[in-house]
């Protein structure tokens, strides 16, 4: 049994890489890793195995199965293995207790002499495996437990140490008879022929499946192998006598047949079996699919340990396959075109694009979809649990019942199309125990043009009362703001759901669902709403509050904004907000315009109601946690508050960000009180010591009692006491001011105009050093700009922390003063005084440097008008009109930088004297605008500000690029 599917897939991929010539491993290293792979594979399938065990001779792998101990020797060499290594393994087996079996695995196989020597020698205690056996185990085509049982049986009963995989799995059962049933047993006027396949010994109905060969004849998958059936002639023959096959097969060109077995896929051609790929994580659950371009695929519907369903493109050898994760659980699938796939999640049908994303959801008929097949690019046929056949036109979404196979019991996935007008279904015949029935269904005429099915109109609204109409305001150009004007009802009133125009034709209606289904959908929507709410910016949640959590009215302006961008009518630089596609994955047509693939997804009304409830619950939880204001008016004012400290504007924060900030604030308060307590305690202790020093000076108890000793003693305690006392008084004033730095004059908060003048005055008064070269202009672009380029409340600011630098300045200043007193007064050698003087001078220069860094910390502002950088080398301005694109990337030095591409980037120097200003990157022909490692912020916040204000000029961050 496969216990670890994730490790199993990793081993398959690693084996494919090891087979490549450029794997980068030496022969010895590859052999050691091969031993580890064998042990890991056996462990993944539930066997206890260990690699590289030392005892009487080194053992590559040891394991046990069914009460028998095995020691395995592995060789991955360029030539076949001869008698020498096998004889060495035999000696090691002889050194162990009776009951130990040796296994020799040689990738390139064995010489004829070596096989004859083992078979014709003494008692057989060694089994020989080659690459075909290894790949059969690795792919799961023959799981390890089954393989060791088969080769042990062959060695025990036939006396053969080496049995090819082809011989191990070949089966020669009796060919069953095929007879025509006298009465067609379809309902609803379905035209069909039913043929009976005679009883087959030890038949397992769960493994059965059906396929079709190039000549249009059905290929039945039975436990004994693949059976070709000629229905008109009522004859059959085994075309692939490989026992243990399951589900359907695939008939390829040149009489090649792909078969599924266990967890893997094999190829049968000219009487020879070759394992080509791994398959499904569940045993006997690999479903083969044929792409119109002739490529072969396998559907893995997933398992409890395999995380999700996958689509596997088969290669020519194990390890060459490619896995593609599917976005949902899948019960059946079929290719429509070379790039489009139709799948079923058991209830509905979904169209997937070439990127395996959901393009459109189609409502399937009642009943769980057991299997489906594509007749052509626009028509599919589904088979439900009660063996009812339905044909669906994907363009018109018309369901046409074909009938029900009343005399057959269904088999999993037993449905295949032969042409546009016929298909095969396999099942168990109820009238004859142990017999299989093959029904050839004639589909009859296609739906006439314009013919539509009768479908109930969607139910709009809910049981709650209506509220006053809401008129949302579309998002302003270049602004991240969506406001709404509404006469809202009480917050607790349930608002009816207003459907978008394109949803009326495909929505699942309330009265078409049972009460349990509606409750399940609503709970699902509630969970998704809670998940989505914490990742939506506050300026968006403000619009949601304005519409009283009415989904359609809230998303309508954003959907129209997205539609303008998709249709090309949006202004230059406008982009879709990064949160909107995420919401569209849940709400589909409510959030996405018709030109976008997400619009093909129409959630049910209970789901949308539950989603709104989840958004409301997440908001109320944030209010209870005091993260956001409780009413919309206060929230609106709070969102538009200008920045008082570096960081993102309030409107760009999410509930998750607010929780993180609150948690950091709690930790900061804890450490602040710890530091405050230590400061007061140390100040008290040093003050007591200074009082003692003063008392000692007054009583003349210094030894010797000289003026020098008295000055030094009082200075050693007095100067630190004065500094600590100043910090303690400043901290007390800060504490009395509510945690803010003390201000001399308390004035009312400035208005917008006063705030603008304050910001410009602050920027103009910032000390600056001269530029490396004189500032130059490029058209209307001024490289150096003294005032703030972005309007108030329309920018995000990120700055380096100056508190640490000021702390270092304070400590260094105290040390400089103490050393200045000690050096001339202390009775120490002249050499020591000189060294202390040099150290004191170094501290002076270091203190000046830290003071400059504290007075002029690097500051990055990203706003509506552009990017502005404040550094010690100057102030630089990058308007959006001058920037072609910006990106966050890791440069050669290992630090992350904000890099911009603009015209004439060589205007900037290739290096900055302070190391913090913009500089030219010749290899990229770009400008390193600002290093991000020095900023007191997180990279994803900078990326959010760039995406919000920069629009389509911002590109996704590079992953570990070295420039």
TrEMBL record:
Source taxonomy: Bacteria, Bacillati, Actinomycetota, Actinomycetes, Micromonosporales
Region feature (Disordered): 448-477, 738-783
Organism field: Micromonospora echinospora
InterPro entries registered for this protein in UniProt: Restrct_endonuc-II-like, Restrct_endonuc_IV_Mrr
Source organism, top-level taxon: Bacteria
TM ranges: 677-698, 710-730, 805-828, 834-854
Domain Restriction endonuclease type IV Mrr: 28-134
Biased composition (Basic and acidic residues): 448-458, 770-783
Keywords: Membrane, Transmembrane, Transmembrane helix
Name this polypeptide is given: Holliday junction resolvase-like predicted endonuclease
């Amino acid at each position: 049994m496969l216990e670890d599917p994730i490790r199993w897939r990793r081993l398959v991929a690693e084996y494919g890489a090891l087979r490549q010539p450029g794997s980068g491993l030496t022969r010895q290293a590859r052999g050691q890793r091969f031993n580890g792979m064998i042990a890991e594979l056996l462990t993944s399938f539930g066997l206890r195995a260990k690699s590289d065990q030392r005892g009487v001779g080194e053992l590559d792998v040891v394991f046990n199965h069914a009460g028998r101990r095995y020691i395995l020797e592995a060789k991955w060499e360029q030539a076949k293995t001869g008698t020498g290594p096998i004889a060495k393994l035999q000696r090691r087996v002889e050194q162990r207790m009776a009951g130990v079996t040796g296994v020799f695995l040689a990738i390139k196989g064995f010489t004829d002499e070596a096989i004859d020597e083992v078979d014709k020698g003494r008692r057989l205690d060694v089994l020989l495996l080659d690459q075909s056996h290894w790949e059969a185990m690795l792919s799961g085509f023959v799981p390890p437990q089954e393989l060791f049982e088969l080769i042990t049986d062959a060695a025990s009963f036939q006396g053969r140490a080496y049995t090819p995989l082809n011989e191990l799995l070949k089966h020669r059962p009796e060919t069953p008879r095929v007879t025509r049933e006298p009465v067609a047993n379809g309902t609803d006027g379905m035209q069909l022929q039913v043929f009976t396949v005679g009883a087959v010994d030890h038949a397992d109905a769960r493994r059965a499946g059906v396929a079709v060969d190039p000549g249009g004849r059905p290929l039945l998958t039975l436990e004994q192998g693949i059976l070709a059936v000629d229905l008109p002639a009522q004859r059959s023959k085994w075309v692939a006598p490989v026992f243990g096959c399951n589900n359907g097969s695939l008939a390829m060109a040149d009489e090649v047949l792909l078969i599924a077995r266990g967890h893997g896929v094999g190829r049968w051609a000219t009487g020879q079996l070759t394992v080509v790929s791994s398959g499904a994580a569940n045993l006997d659950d690999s479903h083969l699919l044929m792409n119109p371009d002739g490529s072969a695929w396998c559907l893995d519907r997933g398992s409890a340990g395999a995380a999700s369903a996958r689509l596997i493109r088969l290669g020519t050898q194990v390890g060459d396959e490619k896995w593609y994760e599917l976005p949902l659980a899948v019960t059946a699938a079929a290719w429509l075109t070379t790039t489009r796939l139709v799948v079923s999640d058991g209830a509905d049908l979904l169209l997937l694009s070439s990127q395996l994303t959901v393009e459109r959801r189609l409502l399937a008929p009642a009943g769980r979809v057991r299997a489906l097949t594509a007749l052509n690019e626009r028509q599919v046929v589904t088979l439900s649990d009660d063996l009812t056949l339905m044909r669906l036109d994907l363009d018109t979404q018309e369901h046409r019942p074909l009938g029900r196979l009343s005399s057959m019991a269904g088999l999993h996935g037993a449905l295949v199309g032969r042409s546009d007008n016929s298909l095969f279904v396999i099942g168990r015949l109820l009238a004859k125990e142990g017999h299989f029935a093959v029904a050839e269904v004639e589909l009859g005429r296609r739906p006439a043009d314009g013919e539509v099915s009768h479908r109930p109109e969607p139910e709009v609204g809910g049981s709650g009362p209506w509220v006053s109409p809401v008129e949302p305001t579309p998002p302003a150009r270049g602004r991240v703001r969506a406001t709404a004007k509404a006469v809202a009802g009480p917050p607790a009133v349930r608002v009816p759901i207003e459907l978008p125009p394109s949803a009326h034709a495909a929505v699942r209606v309330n009265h078409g669902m049972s009460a349990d289904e509606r409750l399940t959908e609503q709970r699902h929507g509630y969970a998704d709403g809670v998940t989505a709410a914490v990742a939506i910016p506050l300026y968006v949640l403000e619009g949601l509050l304005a519409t009283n959590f009415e989904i359609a009215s809230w998303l309508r302006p954003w959907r129209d904004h997205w539609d303008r961008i998709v249709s090309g009518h949006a202004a230059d630089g406008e982009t879709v907000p990064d949160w909107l596609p995420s919401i569209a994955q849940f709400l589909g047509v409510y959030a996405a315009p018709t030109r976008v693939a997400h619009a093909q997804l129409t959630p049910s009304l209970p789901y949308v109601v539950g989603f709104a409830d989840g958004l409301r619950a997440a908001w109320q939880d944030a209010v209870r946690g005091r993260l956001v204001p409780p009413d919309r008016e206060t929230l609106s004012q709070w969102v538009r508050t200008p920045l008082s400290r570096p960081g993102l504007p309030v409107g760009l924060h999410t509930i998750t960000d607010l929780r993180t900030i609150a948690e950091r604030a709690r930790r900061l308060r804890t450490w602040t009180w710890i530091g405050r307590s230590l400061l007061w305690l140390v100040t008290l202790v040093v003050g007591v010591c200074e009082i003692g020093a003063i008392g000692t000076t007054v009583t003349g108890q210094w030894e010797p009692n000289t003026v020098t000793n008295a000055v030094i003693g009082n200075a050693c305690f007095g100067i630190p006491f004065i500094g600590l006392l100043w910090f303690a008084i400043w901290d007390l004033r800060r504490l009395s001011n509510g945690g803010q730095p003390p201000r001399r004059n308390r004035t009312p908060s400035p208005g917008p105009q006063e705030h603008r003048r304050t910001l410009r005055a602050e920027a103009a008064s910032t000390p600056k050093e001269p530029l490396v070269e004189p500032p130059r202009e490029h058209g209307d672009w001024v490289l150096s700009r003294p005032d703030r380029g972005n309007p108030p409340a329309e920018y995000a600011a990120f700055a380096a922390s100056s508190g640490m630098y000021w702390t270092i300045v304070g400590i260094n200043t105290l040390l400089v003063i103490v050393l200045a007193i000690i050096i001339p007064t202390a009775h120490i050698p002249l050499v020591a005084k000189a060294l202390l003087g040099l150290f004191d001078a170094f501290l002076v220069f270091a203190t000046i440097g830290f003071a400059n860094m504290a007075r002029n910390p690097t500051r990055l502002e990203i706003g509506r008008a552009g990017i502005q950088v404040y550094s010690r080398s100057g102030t630089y301005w990058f308007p959006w009109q001058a920037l072609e694109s910006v990106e966050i990337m890791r440069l050669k030095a290992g630090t992350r930088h904000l890099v911009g591409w603009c015209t004439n980037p060589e205007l900037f120097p290739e290096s900055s004297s302070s190391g913090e200003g913009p500089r030219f990157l010749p290899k990229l022909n770009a400008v390193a605008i600002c290093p991000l490692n020095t900023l007191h912020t997180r990279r994803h916040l900078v990326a959010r500000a760039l995406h919000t204000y920069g629009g389509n000029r911002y590109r996704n961050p590079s992953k570990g690029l070295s420039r």
